[in-house]
Records
---
Amino acid sequence: AVPLVVAINTSLAARNGILIRDRVAMEEARTLDTVVFDKTGTLTKGEQGVVGVETTAEWSEADVLSVMAAVEGDSEHMIAEAIRGAARERALTVPDARGFEALEGRGVRATVDTDATPVTDGGTESAAGATGESVYVGGPNLLRHLDVDPTAALATFADEAGSRGQGVVYLVHDGATVGAVALADVVREESRAAVDALHAMGVEVAMLTGDSEDVARAVAADLGIDTYFAEVLPGDKDAKITELQTGGRTVAMVGDGVNDAPALTRADVGIAIGSGTDVAVEAADVVLVDNDPRDVVSLLRLSRASYRKMR
Ligand code: ADP
Ligand code: MG
């Protein structure tokens, strides 16, 4: 009867986007009490996104983002894509721009041709719109280069973003900073649901990352993750799994990268995200083909259910 149950389980799993490479591990999944997730590319999207916008006086968030997106129109930088994406998500009208110029390692400059920039207090015409003057978008290096200090509010925004491990890019208009955005690797919405569901099943969730303490703390807090290990060198990830196992835990590791492979092998159940590298998939017992961290929950449920049937 056992092989039959396992076979049913396997096809049911496949329909849930779960590819089982090692059936014994799949059976073991019912005893898991801890799931360790890799951060970048597993719990997060692994790409930059705009996570905050700060404005000054007469500039609205929409003004800041749409003008920034205009200036970034010609740039292939990951930051430019994030800013254009944020403007697109908010369905903002991006003004025309010309004279694009990349300032290597600092940012970009362009001339914004429309009157999309806001009208000043005095009710005069928008400066950028009227004169078509230079608008800059760039990081702290750009401000140093232009010899511009951020306003007090923007400096505070930058400090707070920095403490969360986020980068900041400023909008400079008429020799002054008029807005800024904070950029971070974006947490997947599905990750939140996965963590909550695992907790509801009585499973502890941990996160493992090579990223900084600041970033790790922020992501763990955001997702309600119990334990995190930050600044873990690629060669030390598997040692963290062993540490948990030595402490009496039965551990699943979920990862996508080449440097996750030893930890996937070491874990009681190694789970690779399907979009991950071949090396991670080869090291894994189970592959989540839909790249959805919530499928870890389905996997545990399936394993627990099939165990009940076999008894
Ligand atoms: P990196 O690859 O580490 O981002 P770059 O030399 O490309 O290094 O950029 C260094 C910094 O310059 C960035 O962190 C950012 O602050 C600023 N920068 C570069 N390009 C842009 C851009 N297109 N838009 C805004 N800021 C930029
Ligand atoms: Mg990764």
---
Amino acid sequence: MKTQVVIVGAGPSGLLLGHLLRAAGVDCVVVERQAPDYVLGRIRAGVLETVTTDLMTRLGLDARLKAEGLVEEGFNLATADHLIRIDIKALTGKHVTVYGQTEVTRDLMDAAAERGLRVIYEAKDLALHDIDGDAPFVTYTRDGAQHRIDTQFIAGCDGFHGPSRKAIPAGAVREFEREYPFGWLGILADVPPCHPELIYANTDKGFALASMRSLTRSRYYVQVPLTDRVENWSEERLWDELAERFDPLSDHKVTRGPALEMSIAPLRSYVFETMRHGRLFLAGDSAHIVPPTGAKGLNLAASDVAYLSDALIAWFARGDETGLTGYQARALARIWKAERFSWYLTKLMHRFPEDGAFEHRMQTAELDYVATSRAMQTAIAENYVGLPL
Ligand code: FAD
Ligand code: DHB
């Protein structure tokens, strides 16, 4: 098979890129290791910036997002016993939208066939070849048969564990990493949220987040040690923990219900600066990870894809190479600012095991300052809604 762009990975970055290229008449094929149901079964991000929702609008794929997404004009930072509301609408004129990553992915998947976007699922053993030359190709196996796709460019949208980043020779690599000594234990349940807006809380027992997917579906997280396992937590124990952390902040509105999903995600900051090598371009989690505090992961994937699709479209339309040459620097400028914000909110809102009473006083003083300073609130709000493209 031959195409203009092979996209590795059918997560949100791969599918968004595929649709943007198809809408401009660029031929591309998305190759995904998993089956569609597996991709849709991963419960991840929940808060979308306008950068992300605008891309769905540009593609004409925002009908369900507009109908079912919840427009959020504020969110809350909290100490153990009081809320600090960040009025993002008043401070920035913008809002964010609560609409799950699963739903974005489903909308993009459902529209693929009618938009002529080819997606090959269950492609195993994918390997990238000749990325340094003008004629790269990928190989994979499917149903026991070996396949090859010849292409002009490869977009590595295959997440943190995919093969694209690993195909770049070690000598060319610049990477930066920070691991955190805790993870987030999440629960999804069909119960009404305890508060109309998100609450990020720094409580005596550690960080906790009250989020939602709709007015009848809640998503909660609590900070747990890295060594913890989901098997150590019964649903009952987690609801007890959530009630303890959120009842004082929500007027005892934590409603319990059976878990649709429970899992632990580790927290990490990671940037792989070599986002271009020859004919390979990386986008989304394949090039960077943020700790989830701040909800930036999926939104950064969307901004990478906005830059990369513009660059590839200009190249195929007019032979204009400036976008491709500038892609890495343009993407990294936004990525590093989102890394900074996610790192800042993580430091501010979590209990670090190595921290003592002094560091805790620093957090308390900073939250007190945020509570009383419009300048601080504005800085937080403009990062939360997403910096401009
Ligand atoms: P992914 O969604 O990882 O998609 C990559 C795709 O590539 C996958 O479908 C994968 O199967 C495929 N792939 C991998 N290897 C191969 C291969 N060999 N061949 C072909 N295909 C391959 N962000 C937030 O903002 N808020 C959150 O609450 C949040 N929670 C998260 C929880 C977890 C456990 C994780 C891992 C991430 C979370 N994120 C969150 C981050 C957010 O989900 C990601 O930033 C987003 O998924 C990035 O999209 P992506 O398309 O770049 O990567
Ligand atoms: C959700 C996850 C986040 O990391 C965040 O900052 C806000 C919301 C969520 O899953 O709903």
